[in-house]
Amino acid sequence: MTGDDLKVRLKIELPGGVRLGYGKVDLLRAVEEHQSISAAARSMGMSYRRAWLLIDELNHCFDEPVIETSVGGRAHGGAVLTATGHRIIDLYQAARDKVQIAIHDELDQLASALVKSPEVTDK
């Protein structure tokens, strides 16, 4: 195993104690893919209410919303990722990638200290 096998999960503390991390970024990506908050939530095993609260929190953190919704039922309603939402995903990914690169040596050292052949136990 090498440091490349270890993954960094970055959380950024925003003003007001709001955190931007991989979970919220994954939710934004899921909304982009499914064009729906409820479908995005289902795809992540999350309740609609939890997804809506997380998106609402992000929408209030930035100058412009990250997700815009429209009502209208099955054929006309939905949710779209805004330009701000795309930018937040891109900025988060760039920051995570920079951190991963910056601590590459430490990740290699951690990987070399891990058990080489973990034992599987029945519990």
Could you walk me through the main structural features you see in this protein, from its secondary elements to its overall organization?
Helix 1 (about 20-35) crosses helix 5 and helix 2 (about 35-45) packs across helix 3. The protein starts with 10 loop residues before the first strand and ends in a 10-residue tail after the last helix. The longest helix is centred in the C-terminal third of the chain and has 20 residues, at about 85-100. Strand 1 and strand 2 (about 20) form a beta hairpin. The strands form two sheets. The chain has a two-stranded antiparallel sheet. Strands 3-4 form a two-stranded antiparallel ribbon. The relative contact order is 0.18. The protein is about 55% helix and about 10% strand. It has one domain: Arc Repressor Mutant, subunit A (Orthogonal Bundle), CATH 1.10.10.10. The mean pLDDT is about 90. The chain is mostly helical and about 120 residues long. The protein is built from six helices and four strands.
